Amino acid sequence: MRILVIHQYYVLPGMAGGSRFNELARLWAEAGHQVTVIAGNLDYSTGVVPPAYRGRWLQREKDGPVTVWRCHVPRSYNRSYVGRMWAFFGFTLSALAAVLRAPRHDVVVATSPPLVVALPAWVTGRLRLRRIPWLFEIRDLWPESAVTTGVLKPGGLLTRLLYALERWACHSAEYVNVLTPAFRENLLKRGLVSAQRISVIPNGADLDQFRPAPRDEELRRSLGWDDRFVVMYSGAHGRANAIGQLVDTAELLRDRPDILVACVGDGPERKQWQNEARRRGLENIRFHGSVPKERMPAFVNSCDVGAAVLQKNPTFLTVYPNKVFDYMACGKPVLLAIDGAARDLVCAQAQAGLFAEPERPQALAGAIRQLADDPRAGAEMGERGRQWVTAHASRRALAETYLRLLERLAGERSSRRKGLLAKEILDRAFAVVALVLLAPLMAVLAVAILATQGRPVLFRQARPGRNGRPFDLVKFRTMREGEGADDARLTALGRFLRSFSLDELPELWNVARGDMSLVGPRPLLMKYLERYSPEQARRHEVKPGITGWAQVNGRNALSWDAKLALDVWYVDNRSLLLDARILARTVSQVILRRGIAHPGAATMPEFMGSASMKKSGERYVS
Predict the structure, then answer these.
(1) Per the CB 3.0–4.6 Å rule, which of 51, 287, 390, 608 could disulfide with 274?
(2) pLDDT tier at 614, thresholds 50, 70, 90
(3) Best CA proximity match to 510, nearest among 497, 529, 527, 523
(4) How far apart are CA 76 and CA 85, in angstroms?
(5) Where are the domains of the chain?
């Protein structure tokens, strides 16, 4: 399989930073797949472009078995937030050039942030003779995290544009992967994706590199750690990381000369807090700058506790920090000043560390004293953490899970195109011809609606298409505008149109556009997506139809459970011959006007969820 990854932060050789996709790409290539990565040419921890890339718009190179296209990124990245936005824009342009030069691939992965990676992914997936499926990965909730950290103004123009880009990316991609269950719930709650199109493949640890080892005494001496109890923070030093809380914690630990706080990494706020620690005369906190990823196992094994801290921010209740997996893989206890999903993973599931309230130096100092005074308890936490990571977060196992997902996406596209190409051609051709032939009738109906009901003539509403992706359904309007029961709002003309299904005729436009098929499960309301059982949600594995198996087997006279079961049966048994049978039976159903209304109602009552699931008291999302 040929895999294309678009990842602006794919780590440069010998540079610091999160290496999730460096490791995934290597493992996929070692499994025999052809992997190409489109990445930036900037060292993001320092904002410096290495000399080998200066003055070059694109440069193709090899990172072991992986082909990498290094793309131009403006050096304004670390200067200001405006500079960072300009750097994102510059990468988008250079990445677009790279995807047009890269050979054809079977599947595309675009990992965000930044959100703009969705643009080159969409281009390479859509602007080809044959469409390529693409997966959108969300490593951080953008622009939400930028708003809650105060970087972006709520309701500002840029914020609205970024939210629109996030929504478009989620709707356009064939599939979405997120790094935490909380991210998944956030996207489902906001209606950005359906449960059939989202997975959770989290961060993990490379157990081949990060494993327990004796501490490096020479390294400790060179860093000035000596025999002290070292609490090491490794990672970015930016606004979201709130490194100031570690400086304040060191202030509270002045009475413990045996304890040292070590900060490894870089970012826009490192110098500020390094100078502040120097101004306060703190000898128990050190700033070591960036360290290449290959040296990090030695650093982790040489410390006593691994720390992970973030700003106290509701958005960070949803994150898993990369670093905690590395700490646990090396058998180190974790000091965690991040609430929510991370706290549940580290302190509840793995029982591998202590939690301290974010941005409360007193709590952090208290937890550090506890760990320093009880090394046996810390060692037990470290052992439990190592066991948990080995069982649940091995990078190699996660790479295999991810690979199966990509193979399924590529395979689905291939089989769908081979098996359903004839259906799509027939659907669209029939719809175009029918629109032409029925244009006079539709014009007459439009005039009648305009004369009796006024504007608008057409009813438009977002409905879930294949995989739950929204589209705008178009029908003739049959009800008066406003609130109230359907019985009261349904007009006399509307009843006539519904009795012969004439209100459905404009949906031929949806078929011609490719949003719908002639035959398939009917497109229901978007709010029903979270009410389906997992089995019922399978009705969205195919395009919705103007008519379907449920429509010719009882239509609205059926219960919801019966209708949805018939929809799933169609998904499992669909064929051109079955479609022909359904179309033929639809003609007789329309002429005989069967199943137009639910017993005792003018229309189908609202679907509130599966009856069987209600009885069991379960709740589920789709």
Answers:
(1) 287
(2) very low
(3) 523
(4) 9
(5) 2-200, 217-392, 438-616
- Structural element, H or E, at residue 28: helix 20-30
DSSP 449-514: HHHHH-S--EEEEEEE-GGG-EEEEEEE--B-SSSS-HHHHB-HHHHHHHHTTGGGTTHHHHHHHT
Residues 6 or more apart from 425 whose CB is under 8 A from it?
none
Q: How confident is the model at residue 617 (pLDDT cuts 50, 70, 90)?
A: very low
DSSP category for residue 305: E
Residue with tokens 């069967």: 594
- 2-200, what's its fold? Rossmann fold (3.40.50)
Is-same-fold flag (2-200; 217-392)? yes
Q: What is the DSSP string of 151-171?
A: SS-TT-HHHHHHHHHHHHHHH
C-alpha 372/C-alpha 40 separation (Å) is 41
- State yes or no: pLDDT of 618 exceeds 50: no
**Which pLDDT band holds residue 287 (cuts at 50, 70, 90)?**
very high
pLDDT mean over 425-447: 93
What token pair was written down for 208?
A: 């081949």
The class that CATH gives domain 217-392 is: alpha beta
Mean pLDDT of 316-337: 90
Query: Can you say how many angstroms the Cα of residue 481 is from the centroid of all Cα atoms in its chain?
Result: 37
* CA nearest to 197, candidates 565, 574, 619, 541: 541
- Which stretches does DSSP call E strand in 495-620? 517-519, 545-547
What is the 8-class DSSP label of residue 14?
T
Mean pLDDT of the chain: 85
Tell me the residue type at 515. Answer: D
pTM, 2 dp: 0.62
Q: Is the pLDDT of residue 486 over 70?
A: no
Q: Is 618 helix (H, G, I), strand (E, B) or coil?
A: coil
Phi-psi region of 600 (alpha: psi -120 to 50; beta: other; left: phi over 0): left
User: Taking Cα atoms as reference points, which of 274, 284, 332, 334 lies closest to residue 309?
Assistant: 334
What is the SS3 assignment for 357?
Answer: coil
Which residues, 6+ apart, have CB-to-CB distance to 353 below 8 Å? 324, 333, 334, 335, 336, 346, 347, 381, 385
